[in-house]
Amino acid sequence: MNQPTTLFDKIWDAHVVKAMDGGPDAVFIDRHFIHEVTSPQAFDGLRKRGIGVFNISRTTATADHNVPTKDQHLPIKEALSRHQVETLRKNCAEFGIELYDLGHPFQGIVHIIGPELGLTLPGMTIVCGDSHTSTHGALGNVAFGIGTSEVEQVLATQCILQYKPKRMRININGQLGKGVTSKDIILYVIAQISASGATGYFVEYAGDTIRGLSMEARMTICNMSIEMGARGGLIAPDEITFEYIRGRRFAPQGEAFDQAVEHWRTLKTDEGAEFDLELNYNAEDIGPMITYGTNPGMGIAVDSHVPNLSEIPQSELASYTKSLAYMGLEPGMELIGKPVDYVFIGSCTNARIEDLRTVAEFVKGKTKAEGVEVWIVPGSVQVSNQAKAEGLDQVFLRAGFELREPGCSACLGMNEDKVPAGKYCISTSNRNFEGRQGQGARTFLASPIMAAAAAVTGKVTDVRELV
Q1: pTM score, whole prediction
Q2: Pairing between strand 125-128 and 142-145?
Q3: Where are the alpha helices (DSSP H) in 237-284?
Q4: How confident is the model over 72-92, as pLDDT tens digits?
Q5: Is 128 assigned a ligand-binding role in the annotation?
Q6: Domain spanning 289-465: CATH 3.60.15.10
Q7: Overall fold of domain 1-287
């Protein structure tokens, strides 16, 4: 009788080309996504060695991090961003890789275009020179971010040397409360175990709460696995997954799709399979979340308070007080009512069509508060086109929200979309590090509906009071 096996082990072991005693595994990679930030040195390495890309059909390139989100038909103004994007264009042309460049109908944030195009499928191994590659794991695959030297390794061989992570399962069961979303689930979990609590693990999310989520909501959860130190996160594929994939451009079609689904149904953790660590949470304990500090683990329910100094371990007091000083906050204070200057709804965490629909439904008939700047940045051209086809752009226009063009935007401030120093931004992105959204910018992470509530009130608001 076969030993019960976890979903992660099934996928990983099926892709090991060579296992080395005491060393890393050589793992075959099904899909390699690249963008303009982490690929230039990798291509230079190929040139120096006089070799090409091993399998261009398994390599997908797009421009996302450095692209402007206004006037994308014009040359990029910012010199560094322009150089990065132009270098990607030259490298893709030289090595024969198709590029979803500005103006291309498939252009967008790398972790959003993969699933929406059907390039991301259950059972795959997927890598990209970007930590939030874990997003793709929502479709039931092993996806993780890699460094620039590893990008070169995959371009050259279609394989990567990796030590196998430990296995963790996080079970969430129960009914989510009013105004609570998948973003709140993952912010809650990270707050419970800290920004390093899953270091060395690959996390499987399970439980009836997870199974009840849409595909796009699952992507939000897997996206932020890295924010608790995990190597990646994944969710077993099910009927919701299969229906999401059905008919997508590069997914199997017709009979081939039906055959694929037969295999995908086997991709689940066996009864009795062992994890190195297993955690359990109740959905009823989760409220609308917001961060107060400078890492995603510093999060609280919006109706709670910033922890008092007595609640912080002695070993963490110095970093804690430094974080609050940067954020301009005091121990013990409540965040409800705190004025905000910017609202950013976008990023690979929350810039899919479902996110935009949720925000549009909430703000219909409302207008933004005076003095608040609101940016809505779709995750891809396809999301943007869908939003316009559904009339969401008109809802945003009437509310005073600015709907921009696709890109990573103010998630990371590598482009023109930066929050000014000292200003407060409620953001649907994944990181609130010092300077992440611009030098001196102060970031509160929250769900799209929490961000929308702040946009119309001009301050941190418990969304449950408005829905």
Answers
A1: 0.97
A2: parallel
A3: 239-245, 254-264
A4: 999 999 999 999 999 999 999
A5: no
A6: no
A7: Aconitase; domain 3 (3.30.499)
